[in-house]
Design goal:
The complex is a heterodimer of chains A (about 350) and B (about 110).
Chain A lengths: L1 H16 L4 E6 L3 E6 L4 E7 L8 E3 L5 E6 L4 E6 L4 E6 L6 E10 L5 E11 L4 E3 L3 E6 L5 E6 L6 E4 L5 E5 L3 E5 L4 E6 L13 E2 L11 E9 L6 E9 L5 E7 L4 E6 L5 E6 L1 E6 L4 E7 L6 E4 L5 E5 L4 E6 L5 E6 L9 E3 L7
Antiparallel strand pairs in A: 1-2, 1-29, 2-3, 4-5, 5-6, 6-7, 8-9, 9-10, 9-11, 11-12, 13-14, 14-15, 15-16, 17-18, 18-19, 19-20, 21-22, 22-23, 23-24, 25-26, 26-27, 27-28
Chain B lengths: L8 H12 L41 H6 L24 H4 L11
Classes of the chains: A mainly beta (about 350), B mainly alpha (about 110).
Chain lengths: ~350, ~110
Amino acid sequence: MMKRLLPGLLCASLALAQPAELYVLGVHPHTIVIFDGTRNEIVGQIQTRGRAPKELVPSPDGKLVYTTTEGRSQIEVVNLETRAVDRVINITPSGYRLTIYGVVLNAKGDRLYVHVKPVRELIDRYVVDPPQIWSVDVATGKTEKIVEVPQGVAALALTQDERELIAWGRDLYYIDLGQHRIAHTFPLMNPVNPSAGALNTLALFIQFERSGIFSIPYYMKDPITAKDLMGLVDVDLHDGKVDLVELGAPIPLYSAVVSPDHKHAYAVMNQLVAVDLEQKRITQVVDLERTRYVANISRAGKRLFVSGAAPFIHVYDTATLQLVKTIELPGDPSVTAFRALPTRSAR
Amino acid sequence: MKHVRAVNRKARMVTRAVKNGEGDVKALQLPPLGCSLIFDPGWETDAAGGVTGLCQPVEADLYGCYDDCWWPAQVPDQLTNYLSWSDSCAAAERDWRKLDLIYPDK
C-alpha cells in the first residue's frame, strides 16, 4: 500500500514545491488581476487609484508592478505583497497634459524609461510638443529628458546590456542611453530600399519575458508584386537584432508571443495562429469565439494564456491549440499588457 | 467672407494656417497614438471592406478603442471629458446597459 502511495505523495509534494507562475493584467475600470498559470486561477485582485491600467512593468524582485493609469497620464506603484497601491508617480509638469505610451524598467529596478507625448495647455490653445523619452528616478519621481523621438512610438524595451533603449514606433529607434541620442534606426514604415515595402506594426501588446524576443505582427504590400503580405518583426533583446519572418497572405493579428525555446510563435486576434519559426511558416490556425488582443506563454512553453478585449483568460495547449480552460475576469482587459512576473516562491 | 478680418491672435493664426496650407486640426491627431500607425481602417469596415476582420463582438472592443483613441468621435473619451462614463460597466459585452449616456449641459 505504501509503495503505491509513495509516488503520488512525491508528485504532490513536488507540485507544492513548484514556484507559482504568476502573471498580471489590467482590467476595466480600476483593477489589476494576478493570474496563477500553474493552477489556471485568479489568485489576487488589486484596486488601482486611476482608471484603466495599461502598461504593466514588474520590478526585478517581482514585488512591485508599475502601471500607467487615468488615460495613461500617471504611473502607479502597485505592491503585490500588500495588494495595494504604494504611491502614484505623477510626472506631468504644471501646465501640461501628458500621455504615456511605453514604459520599461532597468534591471536594477531604480530607473524607469517612459515615452511621453506632452501637450502644453495654454489659455487659448493647445501646443503639441515633440514626443520624447524621459528617465524617471523611481525613488524620487525626478525626471530627465533623454531625447526627442518621432511621432508614433508605442512601446519601449531595453537591450540586455542596457546600453540601448529600443523605441518601437513607425520605425525602430535605437537610443544610446549614454549619449542621449538616436544612434540608429531600423526602418519599418519608412524603408530605405525602394524594393522593400513599408511594414505596418502595432506595438501595443508587450510580452517578451519568456523568450527575450519582442515579436509584433507586420503587414505590407509588396511594391514589386503588389501582393499583401504579413509576417513577424522579431527583435532579440539580447543584442537588439531584428529578424523579419515573412508568413504569406495576411491574417489580421494584434499581437504575438515567442516560445521560450525560440522555435514557435503564437499570434492572436480573431484567430489563434501557430508559427514554426525555424521553417518560417504558419503551422496551424484556429478560429476563436471572440477577439483576443494579447497572449503570453508558460515558462515551459506548454500553455498559452490568451486575453484582452472581453473579460476572459483562455488557456490553450500549445501542441494542439485545444482550449484547456476559460477563466472569467471581473472586467474587460482592454488594451492591457499581460506580463509574466519574475520567478519567486509562491506568495 | 472678404469683409471678415482677423482681429485677435487666434484668428490671425487660423488665417495664416489656411494661407500656408497647414493642417488645421492637431490636438486629437497627435496627443493620442493616432490611427495612422495601425492597419485597421476604423470600426465600420475592415481592410477588405467587410466586417469579418473587425473585432468580435463589437462591444468587447469598446474600451480597447476609446482608451487609446481609435474612436475619438464616436464615444466619450478619457482624455478630456466624461472620465467616469463607463465606471459602472466593467465588461462592455456583459454590462453594456450600465454605460452612461452623455448629454451636453443645458
